[in-house]
Amino acid sequence: MRSILERVGIDEKITEIIWKEGKPVETLNKACEEAKVDLLILGASKNEALFRYYIGSIARKISRNPVCSLLLITEPNKKESNLNNIVVTGIDHIKTKTSIKAALNFSNQFKAKEVTIVEEVKPSKVKTRIDDHNSLREAYHEKEELEKEENKRIQNILMPLQMKGSAKISMKCVFGKEGYSIGHFAEIWGADLLVMNSPDKKLGFLDRFFPHDLEYVLSDMPCDLMIVHPKES
Amino acid sequence: MKEVPKGLEGFKKNGLRNMLSGFVVSLIALPLALGLALASGVPPMAGIISTIVGGIIVSIFGGSYVTISGPGNGLVVVILTSVIVLGGGNLIVGYAYTLGAIVVSGGVITLLGFLRLGNLSDFFPSATIQGMLSAIGLIIIAKQIHVMFGVSGVEAPNNFMLLAKIPTTIVEVIRSASIPWVALLGVLSLGIMAYYAKITNRYFQAIPAPMWIVLIAIGFYYYFEWFSEMEFPIDSSFLIQIPIDISESFVLADFSQWNTGVFFTAVISITLIASIESLLSINAVDKLDVYKRKANVNKDLKALGVSTMLSGLIGGLPVVVVIARSSVNVNQGATSRWANFFHALFVCLFILLFSQLLNLIPLSALAGILVFTGYKLASPAKFIQMYQFGKDQFVIFLVTLLATLLFGLINGIVIGILTTFVIQFFLMEDKIGFLRKPFRPNTLLYQEEDGKLHLSVKGHSSFLNYLRLKEKMDSIPPGKHLILDFSLTTFVDNSVMEHIHHYRDSFEKKNSKLEVIGLDIHDSISSHPFAARRLIRLTSFIKKGGVLTNRQQKLKDFSKEIGWKFKTNSVFKAPLLEAFPFFRTKTIDHAYNVFNGEHKEVPITLMDVEFYEGEFIAKEVHKHTVLLFSPPMKIPRFRLDKERIFDRLAGMAGFEDHDIEGYEDFSRRFKLQGEDIEGIKKFFTHEIILFFESHPYYHLESDGEHILILKSQRVATISEVKALAVYGEELIDKLVTSA
Are B504 and B287 in contact (CB under 8 A)? Predict the structure, then answer.
């Protein structure tokens, strides 16, 4: 262990190594709680085999009910300088503010070039049902209005945060299934890191059969994933 | 989009035109209604009731514009089966019970409308629908051809045997002692239907083919009545029988069988076929509308359901939207639902005024019309077309067809869907991925910075999840530019390809644009443009002149336009590209769709490049379109990119962004990097800077000998390729003149 640390060049003075035995998930969670950990870094494979997926790996198990913020690394070979393109959730939720803050901090640390805030909007929010050519135009207009509102909401979050650093911050409003859309977007966008809110309640076995929100991303990880768990809650 | 005058004002303006087209349609609708009813094993008036009720109710409450509603040919087989089965052989009892089933299924169709299930028909794979329709066509032929030859009472255990008995029937007709007038009229009727379109005489074309048949049949009677000494040679049992007192033709529905399984099956079959036929027709007619209106499908379903209920209650067939009559309607210049209304009104008038004349029409003449409609559904051309779609499609088509002939419609379509599923599963590369998420969301729609809409599809895209794609496609308003990106898919099936093809058509008609990208590295199952596509593993990726995708075809056309050579073959080594800083951290896998051209004696290469970042599990595949040329002079190594706000701040802090003195605007907008400061300053002359200022942003790189130009994070669309090529040529112009 020590030799690995030396090779990577980690200073032992500021690093504490804790050895514990027990069931991995519980032990890790316990250790995190005891040490008041801010960020837990785990390795995780992009796609899990069918059986493994439904049983759940350590990384997935922890992310389904996190006690602190998590960083799941899928691409250990990647150099840190490659962390150029960060995608962060901009969903209408209390936790979003913390996630955006975390993403911006990260982008400064790693000199990311682009941070994209993705506002996922439920399609049902568009009240007009598309029936014919008139309602089609109306619905599109309504979408544009919603998009403006969403961007305003995000801007209100961004305002008080002092934007320093070199990243280009942009917003994208996406109408689609929450959780799924952002994962798909991150894949197209070629994101290096996806920042998501932690789940509101523990995700159970059934959620894997009827996936929603975070579960979509966990089942098919487009890139490294950070799950931000606000400390207050 | 032109505004269409509505209500009474609209009637004043376009009323006459719609009345006329309604009249022409009624000339077709009348004989068809009689024929379809007879073929369904019910009294001829059932078809007339359906036409009149449907025409009036749907024209008032419907949501489509230029469609015509009435009895449909798809339902003939369903109704006939349920009349025979429910009545236990007694056609009159079976008719009343079937009416009960029609009323109930009308209720179900109305419910479908309220549940907004107007996209139901899009769920069925297109090959199974084709197979089902062809089976219906064959069944209609099997039943009606005997009637056409005037031989009644031909029976067989199944439809195959019925078809097999055709030669016997013909022999019987030829051997008969007297002149077979009935058969002659039947064959003449089929001949008129088949050759009507080939005769271009203006007066002949003024009357639609079915009406000619009616007129000839009636004329035939009067010939014997007035000119011939012979008796009218056709027995009244071979003629249509419409009651002289119209009120006799109303039969009330009988619901006493409601709790039997057969009744239930009949309701499901009627609902399924009626809604599929209507929905397919509405979508097809939508594309014909001169005003480019989009029909409210769910509203139409409600109106169709209500009119089916009413029609069934008083003895009529189910009401569906019919494609053939609707397209005649559009061709006659119809602009509103008034045409449908008038067509019903005219049919009503004909029945009230001429019912006695209509009783002179031989059944064989109507059977001739039906045999032709059956032939159109099951013509050899359809078989050939299905074969061209690919062997997979042909198998699904044949299986559905045979299953429908042997086991009935519902079983047939279920077997067809299962077959499609199994075949697709075997064709797929990523089987486990498919099993894991067959119904998961797979689409993402967002707006790109330049206002274009980007719709990306992921994983497998087939009939199972097509409705998700359709929902997104339908939310795009006219006048937009949509890029449909299949690059993340592993499998795209025939149904989706076919739907996309139809969308391209309707997009173009609505001033929108649809560009499909990301299918270039997929292998197609057959050479037809609708063929299913699957992603080939990169190791086996050697494409030798295979089938061109739509994009490749357009690229090829473009290459001819500008006189460049175009090759789709992959080039596995691209050492030139690897020298550029952009590709330094990336591994180039291969380049494909390569253009080789020349401008002002400077050779240019334009190509799609696929490359990775990372290896093994960390591998990320990217595709870019790039342009490469080598200018005729010495150039410095440099990198030129769009400057972002934060780049400027970084630049102030002393990072390597070179500003060219005297060109504030250029320095503000572009980020210029390079080590050879002197060389760069020399290279960026006044003309060159002006060029960059006045053109859209591209990412430019030089390795000292070549210049590389690229733009977006994905493969360029056709228009972007053209823009890139022109940009390259103009840059060469500038460089040559400044050298």
Answer: no
The Cα of B237 is separated from the nearest Cα of chain A by a number of Å equal to 49
Q: What is the pLDDT of residues B632-647, one digit of tens each?
A: 777 888 888 776 654 5
B295: closest chain A residue by CA: A132
The angle at the Cα of B617, spanning B613 to B618, to the nearest 5 degrees, equals: 30
For B435-536, give the CATH class: alpha beta
Enumerate the residues of chain B whose CB falls inside 8 A of the CB of residue A140: 475-477
| For range B247-276, the mean pLDDT | 89
Q: pLDDT band for position B614 (50/70/90)?
A: very low
State the pLDDT at residue B14. 75
Question: Which chain A residues are Cβ-neighbours of B476 within 8 angstroms?
Answer: 140
Taking a C-beta distance cutoff of 8 angstroms, is the pair B471, A176 a contact?
no
CB-CB under 8 Å, B622 with A174: no
The structural domains of chain A, ordered by start, are: 1-37 (no CATH), 39-228 (3.40.50.620)
Q: What is the CA radius of gyration of chain A?
A: 19
A65 touches chain B (CB under 8 A): no
Q: Quote the pLDDT of residue A232.
A: 53
* 3-state SS assignment for residue B73: coil
Check B432 against A50: CB less than 8 A apart.
yes
Cβ contacts of B81 within 8 Å, gap of 6 or more: B266, B269, B408
For B252, the token pair is 């009330």
| pLDDT tens-digit readout, B543-578 | 444 566 778 888 888 888 888 888 776 665 566 776
Give kind and range of the element (H or E) at residue A43: strand A39-43
Closest CB to A45 among B454, B617, B647: B617
> Is A74 in Cβ contact with B647 (below 8 Å)?
no
The Cα–Cα gap between A172 and B355 comes to 67
d(C-alpha B383, C-alpha B180), whole Å: 33
- Nearest beta carbon to residue A139 from set B299, B436, B475: B475
Over residues A153-174, the mean pLDDT reads 79
Question: Quick one: tokens of B674?
Answer: 């390079």
A208 in B contact zone (CB under 8 Å): no
Greatest extent of chain A over all pairs of C-alpha atoms, in Å: 69
Q: Which residues on chain B are in Cβ contact (under 8 Å) with A44? A: none
Q: Are B365 and B80 in contact (CB under 8 A)?
A: no
B418 exposure class (CB count in 10 Å sphere: 0-12, 13-18, 19+): middle
Judging contacts by C-beta atoms under 8 Å, the chain B residues touching residue A50 are 432, 435-436
Contact A196, A225 (CB under 8 A): yes
Mark yes or no for CB contact B443/A176 under 8 Å: yes
What are the structural domain ranges in chain B? Answer: 7-394, 435-536, 557-738
Of A46, A136, A167, the CB nearest to B477: A136
Tokens of A211: 């996936």
Residue whose entry in the numeric block shows the structure tokens 């270039």? B520
Distance CA B601, CA B309 (A): 75
Task: Retrieve residue A172's tokens.
Answer: 């994208």
Of B299, B263, B306, whose CA–CA distance to B108 is shortest?
B306
For the record, the structure tokens of B530 come out as: 């609708």
Per the CB < 8 A criterion, the answer to whether A188 and A134 are in contact is no
| Residue A177 at interface with chain B, using a CB cutoff of 8 Å | yes
Tell me the pLDDT tens digit for each residue of B659-680: 666 777 777 777 777 777 777 8
Cross-chain residue pair B444–A190, CB shorter than 8 Å: no
Pair B524, B391: CB distance under 8 Å = no
Q: How far is the C-alpha of B65 from the C-alpha of B55, rounded, in Å?
A: 12
Provide the ipTM: 0.83
Cα–Cα distance between B667 and B144 in angstroms, integer? Answer: 81
Residue A50 structure tokens: 């069918």
Residues of A in contact with B469 (CB under 8 A): none
Report the length, in residues, of chain B.
739
